[in-house]
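Quick start: read one record
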Amino acid sequence: SSGINAAWPLRSGGPELKLGGNGPVIAKRMVEEGAEVLLAIQNEKIYRDRISREIKLPGETIDTEQDDYDLHIILEFDKGEKWGPYTASRGNRYIVHRDKHNPQLKGLAAVRSAVKEFNPHLVVLGGLQMLDTYPFTEDELNARLKEIGDFLSELPIETLVHFEMASFVNPKFLKRLTDVILPYSDSIGMNEQELPNLSSLIRTGNIVYISDSKIKVSKTMDDTRELLAILNELPRQKPLTRVHIHTLAYQAVFTLRDNKKWMSGITTAVKSSLTATRYVCGDESIDSTKIKMILDESFSSSAIPGSQRIPIIDSTPVSCWPDGPYEICLAPVLVCTQIKQTGGGGDNLTGVGLLYHLK
């Protein structure tokens, strides 16, 4: 998705206006890390003027009405902050969006011809939550889903595909969407709320509307193992070889050991963890007075009694171990205690994590 973000970050002097949405944020981060990126948005002047020239857009730049753009408003607030008579009991963010173009997948239509010449190593799919609850007719929704399926089927089999999950509220739509995307996905990225959502959908056909924000590592490991087993048993165009779980407390990366596309997940786990800290604190340096570790000093690799318990060692805090056909790497996150911003954090660490995982 793309749009103009009007964001009120924490500890700021006022709103910041910038080009946002999952796609542009991931693209910006990947370019900063040295990648060559083609971004699937319409090449309109209002977007082209606000995005790095190093990011390629499909086709020629066109001018459009200045008020005819998708708009996202992000309100971020810290624990204890007041708004009128209300006091926040915890830090959080609230997002309101007005999207007319994103649900129509105009960026996908624009990029389908350009992608053949660009010949990408990796395709990242994100922002598809903007289709969720949009008032499509049945025929319109079928057409949008067919566009996604046609695009994926046209990609060479060796092109890696990563699907970044998001918050969805309509289980029927999410089921139809994942039926189209997951068979083509080499990799999936999720946070601690999205993992139980997708796991529940695959197992029961329903989504989880409320989930624990502090899920134990052992449960995350077990849920991811189960999800991988189920998805790889379903009809697929290619095997699912990578899963990245990003949580407040840690980054966990599952990588199929016998694969020719991904390196060990250790660098991905480390870079993603550091990116999360730096982005949320708004500082490339890491100040020990502004961080804390909330992961326990050790964790179980599974909730099954007798499972391996893995310590967090100060000198080598990142742990990697073989787990069936997969390697699992886990890095604690140094959680920022003086938060500047959270919106866009997941997109930043997703872009970094993918780049440092590629062979």
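The first strand starts at residue 3 and ends at 8.
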